[in-house]
Amino acid sequence: MKIEVRLFATLREKRQKVMTLEVPQGTAAVELIDSLDIPHNQVAILMINGRHSKFHQPLQDGDVVSMFPPVGGG
User: Cβ neighbours of residue 68 under 8 Å, at least 6 residues apart?
Assistant: First the structure.
């Protein structure tokens, strides 16, 4: 199945901003994160199709997965 992955801020370093990936049916978001070599603690916000999601959410064909890192400021 095909999914679109959108990475933001520091997660884009050494990776593409937007990717279309082919993943096996039943793949969970956490498996996608692992396949991109992104440490789990670097994903502060995970969204699937514009909605906040859990790491173990199974992906569906055509999903858009967006990942945001922790943001500091003051």
Answer: 8, 9, 11, 43, 44, 45, 46, 47
**Segment 4-29, tens digit of pLDDT:** 999 999 999 889 999 999 999 999 99
Given a contact cutoff of 8 angstroms between Cβ atoms, the answer to whether 16 and 7 are in contact is yes
Give every strand in the sheet of 18-22, ordered side by side: 18-22, 2-7, 64-68, 45-48, 51-52
Euclidean distance between CA atoms 8 and 45, whole angstroms = 10
Calpha distance 49→62 (Å, rounded)? 9
Q: Which residues contact 14 (CB under 8 A, 6 or more apart)?
A: none
